Amino acid sequence: MTSPLFRRLSTNSRNRAFKIVILGQNGVGKSALTVRAITRRFIGDYDPFLENTYSFSCNIDGDTVAMEIRDTAAEDENSRLEANIKWADAFIIVYSVTDRCSFNECSRLKILINSYAKKPKSTGQNAGACTPIVLVGNKTDCPQERMISLEEGREKAFEMGCVCFNEISVREERDSAINILKALYKQCRRPGRRAELQQRLSCPPLSLSIPSSADDSADDYAALARQRGRRKALYTIS
Ligand SMILES: Nc1nc2c(ncn2[C@@H]2O[C@H](COP(=O)(O)OP(=O)(O)OP(=O)(O)O)[C@@H](O)[C@H]2O)c(=O)[nH]1
């Protein structure tokens, strides 16, 4: 990915951009999601060994928001993964709905985030419990190859304490990727939102939300939460 649209960042950048790391097993579409979010384009093939951090800005409800997004490489060794987790403010964990292995990998990544994520300054809480994570099931354009149902994805998001869950097709959908980034930002950076989120995530009931593109799912999600004896989904991003 060498497009001049991208500005590569040094790892010790001091700007105050919102930092997001994309994690997931190889081949799930991390690079595709990153490129789609920044350029709205879908490019078929990406170098699986490249890890890149990109800066860009986007308009969120009239505000220009600076973001840094790190697309991690498939072969990242654990020490690199640890560094990436420590760097981030928030995470997108991606699996492919056509690949059960990639789905199982999400739980391992959540455990690593629990171990390594930045500790919130304001509280002595477990860092992982307060770390905003979005779970994304990609490749919904391959229904014949689907191995993970929407319900399984939602259940996993509950288990992992994710703030959002959505299924998308990076290939087919132009705006889903950027909507996920915006949703994550809104959950974390709006004035007062981060503290509220941390407080709620530190409680046993999980707080979950649905990006605006999945409005229809919000009621289902809330119903699932009630069925499981958990609090109704706390946020619906508009
Ligand atoms: N059908 C389909 N293919 C996709 C989609 N998103 C990505 N792909 C394809 O999946 C393959 C892997 O995509 P990448 O973006 O390189 O995946 P990655 O997770 O970055 O892979 P690594 O760099 O190896 O970790 C490529 O051939 C993409 O074209 C999608 O939504 N639908």
TrEMBL record:
Catalytic reaction(s) noted: GTP + H2O = GDP + phosphate + H(+)
Keyword DNA-binding: no
InterPro entries (alphabetical): P-loop_NTPase (IPR027417), Ras-related_GTPase (IPR051065), Small_GTP-bd (IPR005225), Small_GTPase (IPR001806)
Keyword Signal applies: no
Recorded superkingdom: Eukaryota
Enzyme Commission code: 3.6.5.2
Gene Ontology terms, MF aspect: G protein activity; GTP binding
Keywords: Hydrolase
PANTHER family: RAS-LIKE FAMILY MEMBER 11
Family per record: Belongs to the small GTPase superfamily. Ras family.
Protein name listed in UniProt: small monomeric GTPase
Native organism: Dreissena polymorpha
